[in-house]
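Researcher: I'm preparing a figure for a lab meeting and need a structural model of a single chain. I don't have an experimental structure, so a prediction will have to do for now. The sequence is pasted below. Please return the structure as tokens so I can convert it later.
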Amino acid sequence: MSSAETAPYEALARMIERELELIGAGDYDALAELKSERDALISTLPEAPPASARPALQLAALMNKRVEIEIVRRREALLLEFANVERAVRTARGYSPPRHDRRHVEATA
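Model: Understood. Here is the structure written out token by token.
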């Protein structure tokens, strides 16, 4: 049940869950917008949360860890894709005709 003092913390947990969904979908524009909303919400929270916010904060921490894991997973997938592109470029170069270096003569008067 949401009370006035726990509502912002529950909203924070939902925002982090939404971040996870957006990262999974690759919707980085919406993710940037949501991050701005999250930062704005966090700036309104008191320095010390009420004890009743503990479950929402635990959920938020768990979801935040999942976001970190998903970011690392996405990063690794991008690095693998980049390596595949680099390998394809090297392979394609192997099939191209040999390049003959033209010798340039520099003549000065």
